[in-house]
Amino acid sequence: MLATKWTWVVVLVFFCLPSFAGVKRVTRDELSPAVRASIDRECKGATIRAIYSEYSFRHRMYQVDIDLDGHPRSLRINPSGRLDEVEDEVSLDSLPVQVREGLVRKAGGRRVLRVESVTSEGTIRSYVAVVSRDGKKREVRVPAHKERK
User: How would you class 90 by CB atoms within 10 Å of its CB: exposed for 0-12, middle for 13-18, buried for 19 or more?
Assistant: First the structure.
């Protein structure tokens, strides 16, 4: 009897929980008016590629992937419509020396495919690089350093 109860617990964990968590593509019609208004305000002149609803650690967020003048950008918007984070693709060469060296060091010999600046409340907080080796991709992150004078 005890084994049967544990079997059901395992079944519920593996089959039901993933349906409540993760990332799901959504349409504008599925969004709250506050999130739609934020998207309209932030995406003027941009092409919306996709909108995702993310649910993790009991928090819902919306990610909006856009192209602005051919430049990829991701916006993270909370359910109240506040813009929490912006990820902008940047070139590795445009980064401050400390940041560039930190990303290359953390990449550990992997090829850097893409670099993004992560901005929150108008300030660049960190940089994220997508790196690859043997066809496997991963992300490495370094904090944004203030330039020394």
Answer: middle
Please say whether the beta carbons of 101 and 120 come within 8 A: no
> What's the CA gap between 140 and 149, in Å, rounded?
27
Nearest to 98 by CA among 43, 38, 30, 146: 146
Q: Check: pTM over 0.85? Answer yes or no.
A: no
Residue with tokens 């650690």: 57
Beta bridge partners of 114: 130
> In the predicted model, is pLDDT for residue 102 greater than 50?
yes
Q: Which of 131, 99, 104 is nearest to 118 (CA)?
A: 99
Q: Where are the beta strands (DSSP E) in the chain?
A: 22-25, 47-56, 59-68, 71-77, 83-90, 111-120, 123-133, 136-143
pLDDT (tens digit per residue) in 8-28: 544 445 555 445 558 899 999
For residues 146 and 10, give the distance between their C-alpha atoms in angstroms, rounded to a whole number. 49
- Per DSSP bridges, beta strands 123-133 and 22-25 are unpaired
In single-letter form, the type of residue at position 8 comes to W
